[in-house]
Amino acid sequence: MSQLQDVETAVSVCYKVTIDGRDLGSFSSCEGMGVEVVMETREEGGNNGYVWQLPSRLKFPNVKFSRPLGKQTSQITSWIAEMVTGYQRHTATIEAMTANGTVVATWSLNEVVPVRWTGPQLSPDQPKVLTETLEIAHHGFIPNG
């Protein structure tokens, strides 16, 4: 029973994102973290009982981060602006943190490239919280050690 009390759970989390040591700040949502094993099917002649399902490759969806607009947006826009002269793939680290700053999970992503940044919708007739979204592509997880 005492072991259960020592476990941190991510009840109220934010996601701190770092790209090769460049702190992009904390985000309030993170979507798309995952992996899919692509399966190929093969039918065997004379075997009508089943079809072979064979794993072929891993597929990683894009990851989207969102947050209220703030001063840290300049880190994102300067990172994306660097792509004008050519792009380089980077390593990203994502830390899921509780409200008091305790890290409950960490993921490292290989060969990260920014795909899309969406800024706030500026409309004076509908005041609301201004948000931004960053979408990145990657080539898989790096084992944390």
From TrEMBL:
Q: One Pfam match, by short name?
A: Phage_T4_gp19
Its protein name is Phage tail protein
InterPro entries for this protein:
CHP02241, Phage_T4_Gp19
